[in-house]
Each structure stands twice: as C-alpha cells, then as structure tokens.
Amino acid sequence: MRVSYLGSSESAAFIAANSIRIPLYSESAKLSPKSQPSKDKSLDLNTLCIQNPTSTFFVRAQGESIAKVDIQTGDVLVADRSLTARHGDIVIAYEHGKMSVMILELKPDVLLRPKNKAYAASAAPVVTSETSSLEIFGVVTSVVRQLDRG
C-alpha cells in the first residue's frame, strides 16, 4: 500500500491553543434529540490522535495491500516518528524511493509483509539486508476515515 505525505502536526502549544472540545456521549446512554452531554465528557481529536506533536505526521493510504487490518484507500494514517517500531507494528516504510504501509516483522528475520491474501503471491515480503535502503519512517498510531454517505 503506497501513501501520500500530507504534512506534520503543529507544536503542542499550538494544538492546545486551538483545541476544540466535542461532546462525548457514552455508547450506553439513551440518546435522544434532547440529550445533553455531561460537562466533563468531551473529546479533542488532537489529544486522541497525537501523543507527540513534533514527531507526528499524516499520510493518505492508497492501495489494498494491508486491507486485512482494515486500512483502506483514502484513509488518513497518523504516524509517529519518535516511536521505536516493534514486531507486528503497522509502519510507514521508505525503501527504493517509495513510501509504503506494511506490517513490520522482526522474528525470525526483519521483513515487511502485506496483509491481504490477494497480495501474498505477487507482493512477496520485503526482506531487509545490510545493503538494504529500508528506513522505518514512523509507526502508525491512528486511522482517520471519512464514511461514504452514498
């Protein structure tokens, strides 16, 4: 799955100064048009999606190679460069001049693997070596998706 770089987040101070608190309703609450959220139940999407503002960036997903983990074309992925990638993480990888989204495997060998059976034969795992130009650009921490209202 390829990605398009959308940009990085602002500083923590900028995010705090421009925070927008949105009412948060409990799933178990009986909602009606007259329902009012509790004053202490609100949510800021910046706080939810961005833990490290200075190292966070956004990419738009393009392709179906990791559809099995429910990342689809058009999704905005929030990635953090400050995190150390671990086995099984969804990562933004840069290799051979292309950025892509793959699952990082560290055992028994270091490789990037797609998560879509349709890609298993044609898109073999990317095996790294000492001469490889692979760079882990960031760890995906959140996915933002617009729903199609048809």
UniProtKB/TrEMBL annotation:
It holds the Pfam family Peptidase_S24. Residues 38-140 form the Peptidase S24/S26A/S26B/S26C domain. It comes from the Bacteria. Transmembrane segments: none annotated. InterPro entries: LexA-like, LexA/Signal_pep-like_sf, Peptidase_S24_S26A/B/C. This is S24 family peptidase. It comes from Marinomonas primoryensis. The lineage of its organism: Bacteria, Pseudomonadati, Pseudomonadota, Gammaproteobacteria, Oceanospirillales.
